[in-house]
Amino acid sequence: MSNSALLTPYELGALHLPNRIVMAPMSRHRAAEDGTPLPVVADHYAQRAAAGLIVTEGIWPSRRGQSDWRLPGLETAEHVRGWRAVTDAVHAAGGRIFAQLMHGGRKGHPLARLSGDLPAGPSAVPAPGPVHVRDGGKADAVLPRAMTREEVRQAVLDHAAAARNAVAAGFDGIELHGANSYLIHQFLADNTNLRDDEYGPGSVENRIRFAVEVVTAVARAVGPGRTALRLSPGNPQFGMSEADPAPVYRALVDALDGLGLAYLHLTDDDRYPALADLRSRWHGTLVANVGENRAPTTREAGEAVLASGRADLVSYGRAFIANPDLPARFARDAALTPVDPAHLYTHGAAGYTDYPFLSPDTDPRRALAGALGTRTR
Of 2.60.120.560, 3.40.50.2300, 3.40.190.10, 3.20.20.70, which CATH number belongs to 5-99+151-376? Predict the structure, then answer.
């Protein structure tokens, strides 16, 4: 497997990636009640430091954007200290890590939010399905408020402030979550944006306005080379509807293409082949995710995406949950450990940091321990 394109290096701005395998963002609910990542989070990500790049789970930029209980935040000094422990552990193990900022918008519940208030999105359209709330329970979604213009502008400022906190916490960059039914996606989609102002669906330019403003604000706050965006055009998860994604996402990609962003993270969908349609419009690094709403991405599927020229890097989600040494397993053509579904959203080490390594030499922290031992002798 030494000639696999997935295992070849890639230069991502100032970052040297040893391979083209990206750990996709995945919420795991391992934060304290105030949103500070628990100590086990540092170990979890350090275990996976052999990835070319790690993207964290979604992190709320302010409590106004909190969706579920015990999701992490990047709003307070305590949050910054908690995430600094994570980035220090990843960097010490030789890894690179971006923080994903994820504003819930309409998603949430008063019992899932530190503020105890109703969530607010582009329009007063409820999200389907239950919400994780206090004490490990679930509750039906509530009718959200429609954001005022002032709240929309505040959300832009909140993302920029959280991006600055991410840099202070030692992250190598920030990925904005514009996918999978969260706030940016809610402004882009047909059924969640019913506004009649300059952020509404009256024109494509209006529909993409919020996304462009957030990306631009974060790029100004921390630099475009530290700023990235994830999109999932046509993704129907959590009740989203986009009858004709192409015009909206073509316009959005065109508007952002010249900013010099770190990368665009794009999920493909059976209803809209976003990678094929948008690749030629994006002249920077493109990260592909081809497992959304499909079977988990295999090594062969990732190699096919790279060979087609549709992407420069490939992100893996479920495979990284249960295989902290995923690049080594691909390199050795080894079997993958299955995911333990019972512990996906619990709060401890079980099903989080107790998955086995292929062998001791595939644990990136082992190399760190050896180096530290050499220096102290």
Answer: 3.20.20.70
The H or E element containing residue 86 is helix 77-92
45, 182, 199, 316: the catalytic one is 182
The angle subtended at Cα 204 by Cα 200 and Cα 206, nearest 5°, is: 35
Res. 135 pLDDT band, cuts 50 70 90: confident
Report yes or no: 112 and 133 within 8 Å, Cβ to Cβ.
yes
What are the helix and strand counts (H, E) for the chain?
11, 14
For 268-289, write each residue's pLDDT tens digit: 988 899 999 999 999 999 999 9
Q: How many CB atoms lie within 10 A of CB 267?
A: 24
For the question of residue 345 being annotated catalytic, the response is no
How far is the C-alpha of 299 from the C-alpha of 322, rounded, in Å? 15
pLDDT in tens, 47-66: 999 999 999 999 999 999 99
